Automatic annotation (TrEMBL):
Protein name, entry field: Ascorbate-specific PTS system EIIA component
Major place of residence: cytoplasm
Compartments where located: Cytoplasm
Functional note: The phosphoenolpyruvate-dependent sugar phosphotransferase system (sugar PTS), a major carbohydrate active transport system, catalyzes the phosphorylation of incoming sugar substrates concomitantly with their translocation across the cell membrane. The enzyme II UlaABC PTS system is involved in ascorbate transport.
PTS EIIB type-2 domain location: 402-489
Top-level lineage group: Bacteria
One Gene Ontology cellular component annotation held by this UniProt entry: cytoplasm
């Protein structure tokens, strides 16, 4: 991998690369028009991009920009990598993972000389890597041991060693050049990977599961790693599955028979392989646990708690529960066996959707009671993605101008979240759905746009998007779509004719559209527009109260909801519903440290969504003997749009400095300024 003195890819270079990957044979002239740059500037950008890619990845031929097959995956990874990925530390981390993979799978211990020769580094560098690896495992049950006769080798409980091997394999295949380096350094072969992929397709067919594209890409490497470990370390080992007997499922014999050409595999190895395949399957799986009724009840309690905390009603609630059930069953296997699932979006999701993550974490207690310990943050984020994606479900827009589809090689929760985000961003698009690449290729659907997480060739306008859309990514994507619409005279004409269709005779629609298209082709205009994001409930001074007189516990609900009654946002019956719920369960209705959120359901008397933030200058003593100075009265929306406001308020209330400023405010105007600054 080439590295340019620690320099990362410039923002404009990334935009150029995005256009190239979306079209793959786009002309220099077109890219220049889209970005308002001269052709020479575009050429220099491509030179910079090529400097951090394998040689010959992007070429210019007859004024067309071409991407080689081998360069597409590396190019896409560059779009989503952070700046540090181009620093020297990145290569060091990759090499250390490769060393750990060898030490975990090779049949003999490895000396410094062997590591030095295999990975083309000095003995001193190899020794530094070994020291760092030892530090990483300092507090683990497995240790990196050394003998003068053989060298370095991992020792410890076999179950933990295999779990660690899977984690390292996942890290490698999700790293730029990771898969290439594993083959280059002869840690595995392309033939083995191809053979394992064929076995997975066989297993899918026989037991009726549908793996995601990501799993089809990932599992062959994981299974090859397990096979290498089992072959080179033929030790007696076992593990217990007290609650679920895998050997008595219909799936186990199918998977066992698929691996019968590996005679060194013992029963624990085969059960472990089975669990890897089944527990990683998170979409459309027919796999059911023997006590799924218990899990179904846990799903019911989970959803009920969410509805109470978020003051929402889910559309197609039974479908949501089925989706959660399909996810949580294999998640239970992962947790019982100590598998460490990888969720690359964990940090970003928690940062951008901390409130939803917090509520889901609190609501996950029924699942945690089943497995006997807390879910990992990665598992909680996956659950949060399912919930967030479902929250913004609305009826299909019958007045859409363009048809679009989402293609995602990740699991269902990620693709669903991406789909719902795109629906929110582009209300004029009719999104047919989210599909894996294999699903889409088997379903001939005519669309205008394809939003895809990896490059995909199609006649439709194809746009490469990251699986998780941050604020900056959203803004760039809106600009990109608008530019592509401006560039495509047919789509631009279609949009304009649709806007005035009520004034055009039906039999003249096609003629008018063709005329407008011809006009734009002769005089192309470049106008860009940007829609504002949904902001939830509007907050003004009238939505804030600062009370200087004493309020009793019994009066508090009537007091804070009085402004909502005056504005006719709620009916008196809604106030009664709130009082009935809050005075019984107030300790569960929190939106921040000692900040309470009394509410009921929208169908219990909400005329329109509204909110009132109330600051008590003289604190109210609650039954739990805690003084309360801040409360939020909520009349929730039926379409769940109020959740955006709650999320923002939660972020503010969790900031101790902001909370002190709020409590010291003397007027609604001062309070509003604090909220507006956030």
């Amino acid at each position: 991998m080439k590295v340019e003195g620690g320099m990362g890819m410039k923002l404009m270079d990334k935009e150029v690369l995005n256009f190239i990957l979306a079209h793959q044979e786009i002309s220099l002239e077109t890219v220049g028009q889209l970005l308002s740059k001269k052709e020479e500037e575009i050429r220099k950008m491509i030179e910079r991009i090529n400097s951090v890619l394998p040689e010959g990845s992007i070429k210019i031929r007859d004024n067309k920009i071409l991407v080689s097959g081998g360069g597409i995956e590396e190019s896409f990874d560059m779009l989503t990598l952070q700046e540090k990925s181009f620093l020297q530390e990145y290569e060091v981390e990759l090499r250390r993972n490769l060393i750990m993979y060898r030490l975990l799978t090779h049949h003999d211990p490895s000396s410094l000389q062997q590591l030095s020769e295999q990975f083309f580094v000095s003995r001193n560098t190899a020794f530094t890597d070994i020291k760092k690896i030892k530090e990483l495992f300092r507090h683990d049950p497995i240790q990196l041991s050394y003998s003068r006769k053989g060298g370095y080798q991992f020792k410890g409980p076999e179950m933990i060693i295999r779990n660690k091997l899977i984690q390292i394999t996942r890290d490698l295949i999700k790293t730029v050049y990771g898969k290439t380096k594993m083959i280059t350094f002869h840690l595995l072969s392309e033939t083995d990977i191809h053979s394992m992929r064929e076995k997975l397709e066989e297993i899918e067919h026989h037991i009726g599961i549908q793996l995601t594209d990501e799993q089809v890409n990932e599992l062959p490497y994981i299974l090859c790693a397990i096979l290498a470990r089992a072959k080179n370390h033929p030790i007696e080992w076992s593990f217990q599955m007290h609650r679920y007997d895998i050997r008595n499922t219909k799936e186990y014999p199918v998977i066992r028979d698929a691996f019968q050409d590996y005679p060194f595999l013992k029963e624990p190895d085969l059960i472990y392989l089975t669990l890897q395949i089944l527990s990683s399957n998170m979409i459309e799986s027919a796999f059911r646990l023997s006590d799924s009724d218990e899990i179904s009840l846990a799903v019911d309690r989970f959803v009920d708690h969410l509805k109470s905390k978020l003051a929402i009603e889910f559309i197609k609630e039974s479908d949501l529960k089925e989706k959660i059930l399909l996810h949580i069953q294999p998640a239970i296997f992962r947790n019982l066996l100590g598998f460490q699932i990888n969720n690359p979006l964990k940090t970003k999701f928690i940062k951008d959707h901390g409130f939803i993550y917090q509520v889901v974490s609190e609501s996950a207690a029924p699942f945690e009671n089943l497995i006997g310990h807390a879910l990992s943050p990665e598992e909680r984020v996956y659950l949060s993605m399912i919930v967030l994606g479902w929250m913004y479900q609305t009826k299909e827009n019958a007045k859409s101008i363009f048809k679009a589809v989402v293609l995602c090689h990740n699991g269902t929760s990620i693709s669903k979240l991406l789909l719902e985000n795109l629906k929110e961003m582009f209300p004029d698009f009719e999104f047919i759905g989210a599909y894996s690449f294999r699903q889409f290729e088997n379903r001939p659907i005519e669309v205008d746009f394809i939003f895809t997480t990896i490059p995909y060739k199609s006649k439709a306008t194809t746009i490469v998007v990251p699986p998780f859309l941050e604020q900056e990514s959203r803004q760039q994507l809106k600009k990109l779509v608008q530019k592509l619409l401006d560039l495509d005279t047919k789509k631009k004409a279609k949009g304009i004719v649709y806007a005035i269709k009520d004034f055009i005779p039906t039999d003249k629609m096609n003629l008018v559209e063709e005329t407008v298209k011809t006009f734009f082709e002769s005089d192309r205009k470049n106008e860009t527009g940007e829609e504002s994001d949904a902001l939830g409930l509007k907050l003004t001074e009238q939505n804030i109260s600062v009370l200087s007189y004493e309020i009793s516990w019994e009066e508090v609900v009537d007091t804070i909801f009085a402004p909502l009654l005056e504005r006719n946002a709620i009916e008196p019956r809604y106030l009664q519903a709130v009082k009935s719920a809050f005075y019984k369960h107030y300790q569960t209705m929190l939106i921040g440290p000692d900040v309470y959120l009394p509410h009921a359901r929208p169908d219990e008397g909400v005329n329109y969504p509204d909110i009132q933030i109330v600051l008590f200058k003289k604190t109210v003593m609650f039954p739990n003997h805690r003084p309360v100075s801040l409360m939020v009265a909520l009349a929730p929306s039926a379409d769940n749009s109020h959740v955006l406001t709650l999320s923002k308020l939660n972020d503010i209330f969790l900031d101790s400095k902001a909370l002190r400023q709020i409590k010291s405010a003397a007027s609604p105007k001062q309070l509003l300024k604090i909220f507006e600054r956030r």
